[in-house]
Amino acid sequence: MSRAVGVLLLALCLFFAGTYWYNERQINNEPEIIGDFSISVSTSPNKVNIVEIKEMYKEFTDAKEGTTEPAFHSLRIYYGEYGSVLDKYKELEVNDVQAIDYFDFHWKDDEHVTVQVFSRNEQGKSYISQSVKYNLSN
User: Fold this and answer.
1) Tens place of pLDDT for every residue, the chain, 138 residues?
2) In terms of Cα–Cα distance, which of 64, 66, 68, 67 is closest to 32?
C-alpha cells in the first residue's frame, strides 16, 4: 500500500465513522462500545496468525443539543488464528490519535509481532511514536 493511500485511509478512519457493528453492553463499568472500524490488518509469514487494528467507538450524548453520536473511545489490536473470529485484544495506548500517520507490522515468526505506530510532527514529518511487541502464543 502506498504511503499516500495509507494516510488517506487513516484520515478517513479518524474522521468518518463508517458502518457500525453493535455489541452487547459490557457488565463492567466501561463505556459501551457501539461500533468499530478496521484500520489495518497483517498476517504472520506462514498465515498462522493475524492481527487487526480497530478504532473503537462509544456513545456520546451532547447534553446541550440533546443528540447522541458515536465518539472515539480507543484503539485495539485484535489477534488470533488466521481465518478465525478475532475476539482477543489488547488496548493500544496512544496520546494523540489525530497525530497518527500509519501503522507498520514486523513479524519475527508466526507468534511474535512488533507493531510500530508512526505519527506526524508539526512539520509534517513521520516518526515512530510507539513500538509494541506482542507474543500471540499467550
Assistant:
1) 566 655 555 555 555 433 333 333 334 455 677 778 889 999 999 999 999 999 888 877 777 777 777 777 788 899 999 999 999 999 888 777 788 899 999 999 999 999 999 999 889 899 999 999 999 987
2) 68
